[in-house]
Design brief:
Layout: H1 2-8, H2 23-26, H3 30-33, H4 40-49, H5 55-67, H6 79-86, H7 90-102, E1 106-109, E2 128-131
Antiparallel strand pairs: 1-2
C-alpha cells in the first residue's frame, strides 16, 4: 500500500529547464500513423495459409513469393532451381506447382530464352509464375 500512496503525491512544479509536454505534441503526426499497404505477395501467402494444401506446395508458395517481383508481376524460377531449393526432385516441384494451380493460386507459363516456348522435355528454362488470389467459393 505504500507504493499507492507515492503515486498520489504531488511532485510540485517542474525542475529548472524542464516543462511538461502538452498532450497534442506527444501524439504522433498523422503521416506517421498511416499504414503502408500490404504487399501483394504477403496477402497471397495469407490466403494460402488458410487453405489445406500439401506441405511441399506451401513450401513452393513461400519460395515463389520470395522470388516474386512486384514490378514485373510474376516470379520466374526454373523448375530445377525450385526443386533444388525445395530439396525435392523436379517431378516433386512440378507436383507442388500443380497443386497451387489446381487450387487457383498460381498461373504457370513455361518460357524458354527470349520469350519462346520451351522445347519438349526441357525444364531448365526460367518459367513465369503469376500469383493469383481466387475469390472464396462460399461467398465470404
Amino acid at each position: 500500500m505504500k507504493s499507492a500512496a507515492l503515486l498520489d503525491t504531488d511532485l510540485g512544479p517542474p525542475l529548472d529547464g524542464f516543462t511538461e509536454t502538452p498532450a497534442s505534441a506527444r501524439e504522433a503526426p498523422k503521416s506517421a500513423k498511416r499504414k503502408k499497404p500490404v504487399p501483394f505477395k504477403v496477402r497471397w501467402l495469407n490466403q494460402i495459409a488458410g487453405v489445406r494444401l500439401p506441405a511441399m506446395a506451401v513450401q513452393a508458395a513461400i519460395l515463389l513469393a520470395d522470388d516474386y517481383d512486384d514490378e514485373k508481376g510474376y516470379a520466374w524460377p526454373s523448375q530445377v532451381g525450385l526443386a533444388s531449393r525445395l530439396n525435392a526432385s523436379r517431378s516433386g516441384a512440378r507436383l507442388a506447382i500443380k497443386c497451387l494451380q489446381d487450387a487457383g493460386y498460381l498461373e504457370y507459363v513455361p518460357v524458354r530464352g527470349r520469350g519462346r516456348p520451351p522445347k519438349r522435355g526441357r525444364a531448365d528454362s526460367n518459367n513465369r509464375y503469376f500469383l493469383r488470389c481466387p475469390k472464396p467459393k462460399n461467398g465470404h
